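Moderator note: this is an archived Q&A kept for reference. The question asked for a predicted structure of one protein chain; the sequence and the answer are reproduced below.
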Amino acid sequence: MLAGAGARGVCVAGVTAAPAVSVLIHPLRTPTTSGSDAYIPVGKLAQFVGTTPVKVDLFSDTVDAWNRAVHVKIGSAWVRQDAEGQLVAMSTVCPHLGCAIDYDADNSKFICPCHDSFFSLDGGVETGPSPRGMDSLEVQTEGDLVAIRYQRFKQGTDAKEPV
């Protein structure tokens, strides 16, 4: 009789524990952090006319384990037209150590003030410790709307490798 009660107790505990264990191991079975791989709208084409870079912030919905956050800033990009009139977007993250890259309008170049890396208008390294030029991002236009596919890249390497 006592063995039957113990077996029933184990069954009840198992039925109760199974959903709890499933919830606890959920992050191990699913990617815990994700953003959108889609193109993120950044504005109208008219605001990017000319070779002077325009900084845009990129927002997306994110998922982190059990939480979903809506309209979270995931990064920024510099957008400008090249000599052929095509839109070019570059990450504001320095390939050296991940500092923020600013634009120096007086000298028409990009600068990472943390470690004195200087980049030309096309994103190439001019001076400093950065191992490569600024990371380009994919740009898409549909009608008069501009969208960017945001990515992060490994820092401190010669090759542009997605994280």
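Archived answer notes: DSSP finds one helix and eleven strands in the chain.
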